[in-house]
């Protein structure tokens, strides 16, 4: 198969820097996901790898060989697009066979490849249909099959399931990942959906404004966000990020969540976190971060907790999201803290709950730079 390496890639469109000194190293047979918001530079990255766009600076390697001067056809990559454009006058079979004809394969080899992939994707019964007879999910499978029959070194996938409904997206996530593992083809997949990224990737790179914000496994990124952007982008619900003060009281570090009506304080009890914060400049403004599932809410008084008023309750079946308010300003804008609780947790708006956090799951960021302390 193949490795893919991007070395100091910069791409401009006029005065706009779409990619700013990007360096990535994708391993052989890896399912690599580039995650970012609309306009972050994800599709531009794919187009540079495919040879559809040429970077102003940097080098792109396939299997350690520079492909900067190679045409798209010479790069042996297959591009799977967000909207699969199938030839309407051709059958599914003919659409899947189409990219094989320029390779001058025998009709027997073409037939074998098409039918093998159709069987793998469970679309054998669709081969004689035309595109207007396909559902959205079937169209996605045919588009994927058309890329797979080529047996490329690398799959480049540009949000291939974003146009599907939620149920089909869930099914296709598993389908694509399963087939990629079965084939062992190196895959570079881009999406704006962090659920897709977290559930499918071997590793994730998070891109924002043309810059890589963090690179790591899904667990690394979720448990150790490098900065405030990553913390606020990954997770559903995303991490709570609240301006805070750190102070010393009788030798203990105190965390005060700053709100519009004062503060809510607890003692920081984790030794690793305490050591890291003690080594920072005490005058720096801090943002406290905590995942909603690491927020503990209780009707009963618990140690090292503060009280807060319930702002909203959202039962979701498998869990209940409880929002508590830390205060509101003169305009009625609330500082909100989200907690993921058990599905049978009951609370009413306006009720007061005790709030604390899992001691070793607290995160701290420099407010000025956005970078994590830990």
Largest β-sheet summary: 6 strands, mixed
Which structural class matches the secondary elements? alpha+beta
- Distance from first to last alpha carbon: 37 Å
Which outline best applies?
elongated
Q: Total number of helical segments? A: 9
Q: What would a concise description of this structure say?
A:
This protein is of the alpha+beta class and 374 residues long.
Structure overview:
With 374 residues, the protein is α+β, with helices and mostly antiparallel strands. It folds into two domains: 4-223, Rossmann fold (3-Layer(aba) Sandwich); 240-366, OB fold (Dihydrolipoamide Acetyltransferase, E2P). Helix content is 23%, strand content 35%. It has nine helices and 20 strands. It has helices at 42-50, 92-97, 107-120, 136-148, 166-183, 194-200, 218-223, 228-233, 271-278; strands spanning 4-13, 16-26, 31-36, 57-62, 65-66, 77-80, 154-158, 186-191, 203-208, 211-216, 240-249, 252-259, 262-267, 286-290, 295-298, 306-315, 320-328, 334-341, 352-357, 363-366. The strands form four sheets. It has a six-stranded mixed beta sheet, sandwiched between helices. Strands 13-12-11-14-20 form a five-stranded antiparallel beta sheet. Strands 15-19-16-17-18 form a five-stranded antiparallel beta sheet, with no helix packed on it. A hairpin with a 5-residue loop joins strand 17 (320-328) and strand 18. It starts with a strand and ends in an 8-residue tail after the last strand. The mean pLDDT is 91.
Keywords:
single chain; 374 residues; alpha+beta; Rossmann fold; OB fold (Dihydrolipoamide Acetyltransferase, E2P); 2 domains; six-stranded mixed sheet; five-stranded antiparallel sheet; 9 helices; 20 strands; 23% helix; 35% strand; elongated
């Amino acid at each position: 198969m193949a490795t893919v390496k991007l070395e100091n890639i910069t791409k401009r469109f006029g005065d706009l820097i779409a990619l700013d000194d990007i360096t990535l190293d994708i391993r052989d047979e890896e399912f690599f996901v580039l995650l970012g918001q609309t306009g972050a530079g994800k599709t531009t990255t794919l187009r540079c790898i495919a040879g559809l766009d040429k970077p102003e600076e940097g080098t792109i390697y396939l299997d350690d060989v520079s492909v900067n001067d190679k045409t798209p056809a010479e790069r042996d990559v297959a591009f799977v697009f967000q909207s699969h454009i199938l030839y309407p006058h051709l059958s599914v079979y003919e659409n899947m066979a189409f990219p094989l004809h320029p390779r001058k394969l025998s009709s027997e080899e073409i037939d074998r490849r098409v039918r093998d992939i159709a069987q793998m994707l469970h679309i054998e019964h669709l081969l004689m249909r035309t595109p207007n007879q396909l559902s959205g999910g079937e169209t996605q499978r045919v588009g994927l099959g058309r890329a797979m029959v080529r047996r490329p070194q690398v799959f480049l996938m540009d949000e291939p399931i974003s146009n599907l409904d939620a149920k089909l997206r869930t099914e296709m996530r598993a389908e694509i990942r399963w087939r990629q593992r079965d084939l062992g083809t190196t895959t570079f997949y881009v999406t704006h959906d962090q659920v897709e990224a977290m559930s499918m990737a071997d590793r994730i790179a998070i891109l924002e404004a043309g810059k890589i914000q963090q690179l790591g496994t899904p667990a690394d990124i979720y448990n150790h966000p490098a900065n405030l952007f990553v913390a606020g982008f990954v997770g559903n619900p995303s991490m709570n990020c609240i301006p805070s003060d750190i102070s010393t009281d009788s030798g203990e570090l105190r965390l005060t969540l700053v709100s519009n009506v004062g503060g809510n304080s607890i003692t920081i009890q984790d030794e690793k976190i305490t050591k890291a914060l003690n080594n920072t400049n005490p005058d720096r403004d801090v943002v406290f971060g905590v995942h909603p599932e690491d927020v503990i809410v209780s009707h009963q008084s618990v140690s090292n907790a503060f009280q807060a008023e319930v702002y909203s309750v959202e039962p979701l079946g498998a869990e209940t999201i409880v929002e508590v308010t830390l205060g509101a300003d003169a305009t009625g804008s609330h500082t909100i803290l989200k907690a993921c609780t058990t599905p049978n947790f009951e609370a009413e708006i306006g009720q007061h709950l005790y709030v604390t956090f899992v001691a070793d799951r607290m995160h701290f960021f420099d407010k000025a730079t956005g970078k994590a302390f830990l």
